[in-house]
């Protein structure tokens, strides 16, 4: 038969000076102290689970912030590409206008030699008009460059602000998590030290994570130990040796994996004193 994971096993011993059975009030006190220790373990397990959830949330936040930063970097790159494209276009347009301007100037110079003063006046008017248009184009180009530079500065400022906000949020979260964990650990250590100073009991709690093949008269071994106050339990043999006389409370949970009947006996000095199916 295969024996799967043991859910829990606990033993409480109330010390006494004789073999006589202890009072009900002493047994209740022993159970209460062990219940407190179980609650401490449950709190630690819940805290560990909560920390794992917080780490998963933090990881998701880091992935989200990284994705946003990548998007912002892409936007900045696209803006840079757009600026370069506009500048190239402006340079081409400026070159074309300069060529056209020089062509017109040269043409009018040639005509001015042949034509009257009226034609010369018309040429001057056209030259002034061209100069005005060139100035307007230069002003528009400067305005566009200023606007693009302002957009780039705004994007960089937003990126820096976002990075600072993310760092502050991340640091605050880590500080809060570390503080909560440190406070709980400190409290549990103090409670455990107080319990150790006041303890008058002997107890152990053990479990197993490995299946076992057992036959008749086979000792069940719980090799994993949660608590072994008094060092009375030997996980290598599955035998508990009482360090002092007293009242013992024993609970165990076992399960047959193949559906066969399993009968669990409790022995005291090789004598059967209890059992259950």
UniProtKB/TrEMBL annotation:
Name of one Pfam family that matches: C1q
Cellular localisation: Secreted
Stated name of the protein: C1QL
GO cellular component: extracellular region
Limits of the C1q domain: 197-277
Any coiled-coil regions, as ranges: 130-198
PANTHER family: C1Q DOMAIN-CONTAINING PROTEIN, CEREBELLIN-RELATED
Secretion signal, residue range per the UniProt entry: 1-17
Organism: Mytilus edulis
UniProt KW keywords: Coiled coil, Secreted, Signal
Main location: secreted
Top-level taxon of the source organism: Eukaryota
């Amino acid at each position: 038969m295969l024996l799967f994971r043991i859910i829990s096993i606990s033993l409480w011993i109330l010390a006494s000076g004789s073999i006589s059975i202890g009072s009900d009030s002493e047994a209740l006190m022993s159970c209460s102290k062990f219940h407190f220790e179980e609650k401490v373990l449950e709190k630690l397990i819940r805290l560990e689970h909560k920390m794992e959830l917080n780490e998963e949330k933090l990881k998701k936040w880091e992935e989200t912030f990284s994705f946003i930063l990548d998007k912002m970097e892409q936007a900045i790159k696209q803006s840079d590409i757009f600026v370069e494209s506009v500048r190239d276009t402006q340079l081409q347009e400026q070159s074309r206008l300069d060529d056209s301007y020089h062509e017109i100037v040269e043409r009018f110079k040639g005509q001015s030699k042949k034509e009257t003063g009226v034609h010369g006046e018309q040429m001057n008017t056209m030259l002034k008009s061209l100069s005005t248009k060139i100035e307007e184009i230069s002003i528009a180009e400067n305005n566009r460059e200023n606007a693009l530079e302002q957009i780039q500065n705004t994007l960089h400022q937003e990126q820096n602000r976002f990075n600072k906000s993310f760092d502050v949020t991340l640091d605050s979260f880590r500080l809060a998590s570390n503080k909560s964990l440190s406070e709980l650990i400190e409290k549990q250590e103090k409670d455990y030290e107080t319990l150790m100073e006041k303890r008058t009991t002997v107890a152990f709690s053990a479990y197993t994570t490995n299946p076992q093949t057992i036959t008749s008269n086979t000792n069940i071994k719980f090799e994993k130990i949660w608590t072994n106050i008094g060092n009375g339990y030997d996980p290598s043999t599955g035998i508990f040796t009482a360090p002092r006389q007293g009242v013992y409370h024993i609970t165990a949970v076992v399960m047959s994996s193949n559906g066969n009947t399993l009968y669990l006996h409790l022995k005291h000095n090789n004598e059967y004193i209890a059992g259950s199916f």
